[in-house]
Amino acid sequence: MSSPALLTRTQEYLLAVVAAVVTANAYYIHPIIGDVAQHFSVSEARIGLVPALNQLALAIGILLLLPLGDRYSNRRLTILFAIGQTTGLAMMTFAEQFTLFVAGSTLLGFFTIAPYLLPAYASKRVAPERLGHVTALLTAGVILGILIARVGAGWIAEHYGWRLVYWIATGLMLTVTIALPRLMEGGSRSSGSGAYWKLVVSIAPLLKSHREVVLSGLIQALNFAQFIGLWLALALYLTDPPFNYGTDTVGYLAAIAAVSILSTPRLGRWADLVGARKARFIFAIIQLVGIILFWPLGGNIWAMLVPLVLINLVGPGIDVTGRMTFLSLEPAVRTRLTTIYVVLMFIGGGIGSLVGTTVYDAYGWAGTCIMLGVSSALLTVLAAFATRYGR
Fold this sequence. Notes:
Blueprint: H1 9-24, H2 29-40, H3 49-65, H4 74-94, H5 98-110, H6 114-123, H7 131-160, H8 162-183, H9 196-201, H10 203-209, H11 211-239, H12 247-254, H13 259-274, H14 276-292, H15 294-297, H16 305-324, H17 331-386
Helix pairs in contact: 1-6, 1-7, 1-8, 2-7, 2-11, 2-12, 3-5, 3-17, 4-5, 4-6, 4-8, 6-7, 7-8, 7-12, 11-12, 11-16, 11-17, 13-14, 13-16, 14-16, 14-17
């Protein structure tokens, strides 16, 4: 059987654009969550169902759908899942009832599997010496997709209404879905073996035999829960009295995440030198300091830049070092170990979405700061405990 054709430079960059578009869909809600709650006349606690069910559905989708990548063409699956995402976005765009909007967001989350299939697809179609470059390119697409979604959604909603955000998102996904069959070269069925359900069920024994992966997943679940919970509460806090800022201001603040694009590769290289577990513990301490600073500095938007910069500098580093603890293990189980880690992460994101908005609705910004402080302290304790596993 002949080898698949290598990707051209143009295809590599277009796949990075695809990665940005399919990832961005879950993050449009962050700066505009207050506007959406007001439109549907739901409480700040209830609006948390939108991102919460999206993240939990994503965790279920990864568990049930990602193993299909070991049996079927990544190209075919990516196209099918893109259709599912487009359908979910269309439901959100046209929804007149809150229930339908939540259902669309949940469906969208369930089919957001393409960001995890694209690297696997690309790895089979690039020369070995270019694998690192192309993987980094796709990762950059994911980060930029999140960044542009949060900044762009805030600005568009402030000037033209939140509904236009989802019209644009649906249009982008429809364009991507139509383009994917031509962009992604045809490929044969995956060479992976084993029945689908056996692959899914085989994850369970790994939970017992690779306990550090579970610990790393729990640490990242707390880390991601804090990230989601903070930004949802912050969007509500800044658009409520006494600030009364527009959603565009929330979007501008989200642009601070751009510092992670520069810091994360450098922190990753430093972690190679000192060890992933030690580096993660240090990152956790720095993040804890940043989160504690939200309490005294939360009354001024300019002062809040200090803790926001701190947590955006080291937050992604906690994720990177968590992955480093198991990506050097045996290749035969690496994908399933990644599945455990990512599922735990998005369960954390779902819980953080619901708890973040509920706590803010009940106890305001002070309650949010206490919640984040407790969560970050627990993360730091777990990171300290994890250093006993070695470097």
